[in-house]
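Comment thread on ticket #2218

A.B. wrote:
> Attaching the input chain for the structure job we discussed in standup.
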Amino acid sequence: MNEYIRQLIERFRELWGRLTPIQKGLATGVPVLLFVLLALMLAAISRPPESFGVLFADLAREDAAVITGKLKAAGVPYKLKDDGVTVEVPLKDVYDLRLQLASQGLPKGPGVGFEIFDKTQVLGTTEAQQKVNYLRALQGELTRTIMAIAEVRTARVNLALPQETLYSDTAKSPTASVLVEVKRGYRLEAEQVRGIVHLIASSVEGLKPTAVKVIDNHGNVLSDVVRDDLIDEAGEGGTPGLSRQAKLTQGQMKVQSGIEKAMEGRITEILDKVLGEGRAAVKVTAEVNFDQIKSTVKTFEPVVGNEGIVRSSQKKNESYTGVGGIPGGVPGVESNIPGYQAVVGGNLAYNKNEDTKNFEVNEKLEEVIKAPGSIRRLNVAVFVDNVQPQQHASIQRVVSAAAGIDTTRGDVVIVENTPFDKTAQAAMADERAKGERMQQEQMWLDVAKYAAAAAVAILVLIFMRALIRPRVVRETMVVEVAGEPAGPEPVEEAPPPPPPPPPPTMDEVAPPPPLLIEPEPTAALERQRRQQIRQHVNRLARSKPDMIAQIIKRWLNEDKR
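C.D. wrote:
> Ran it. Output below, let me know if you need it in another format.
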């Protein structure tokens, strides 16, 4: 095996030495160029698109302008989103750029903070200017603090600080107002509004929480929801206002909404299992009774049978028989005036019986408090997507049973059959199909990438074969010719040449004997070997000129290829 490899290396050296300089340049330059092009193509195909990450979001317009200017000056690519308040940069540079911009004090946020005093004060700054700068700095710091709340997009704080006076009777208390813009889809809870109020009140000397007003960008006064609580905390008198009423109303609305959502969920769950997901739309409206009723019932019931237990009994009998009169007459003045007949004469008799019984009975005192939140009436509306007519009645019965419909209290259930608008579903299906197509395209792109690499490698091999094969064929033929045994020199008077034989085939040409190459041949041996080959070729050309002609034609054809 080592001898065979040594022979191949030696043969390659011989072939390389016989190439012209142009052929050597092509043999080395073209494969290198093809490999470089292949590497560049693979790098361009396999390199994913540069991904961007969020550098800063919800920036003030001023900060966005300054930051983009810094990025442009540094030659960093960036993208603006969300109306220019979100800046994106290449994902690999996000953290480095944040640190670089933070070292420059960016983003500063809306307004100015206490960094206004970091600047060298100009000689001659008055006390009034210092107070204005302090007010601006305090408002800016409070604004930045409020904007740290997750639900707040932007904020603005205005403080009204009265001038100090020597007379306490004429001194005025400071006031504050806060304008907040809440992010889309969010809202501030009462506790968050309370936190903003206490934050402002605690940051300004002498500012009471009741003197802070918080409004949103729609003009709603958010601080009214907690006004009464703030009054109670401050120990100030006051009548119940919007705060308690609003909280009571919000609580009732939450209870009503919870009842409606629960019923909608139950009905939707049943219909989705029967009709399929998304083929039913359910809406429930509940009228909830939030009245609290307190009633007291006092009931007397007998202990035994229908009479109860006798506690005491008294009987009285009175009778009279004889002549005379029984006092009588009409009660009043006339019967008592002398001269009037006040009695009736004659034989009289009468009996009088009295029977009095006192019973023990049970006395039941029942106090009933009816808690609020009972359902007064239910209205259920259901749309189904193009079901069979025979299903309509069954769906209505199932919905009535699931919602607990009571017709005696006026509950209503309406089921309508209509085709649904599937535009949104079609759009989602298109998006999914688009995503699948992109995945397939990426897969075929990867296949094309590897196929291109294989094609370039095959082209390089074909080029090398086309460049080296003619020389190999020639050397093989020379070796085949040289390998035949040398015979005696032909006589000058040879017989007339026979007709030209057909082109020799591979079977007619004897297989070449093994070419013995010494590991380190000397120059003399090489010259002797070449001389022997040349003499043998000359003898063969004289004896077999037709075969030599065929070999030369084959060489020419190989060169043309």
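A.B. wrote:
> Thanks. Noting for the ticket: Confidence is low (pLDDT under 50) at residues 482-495, 505-520.
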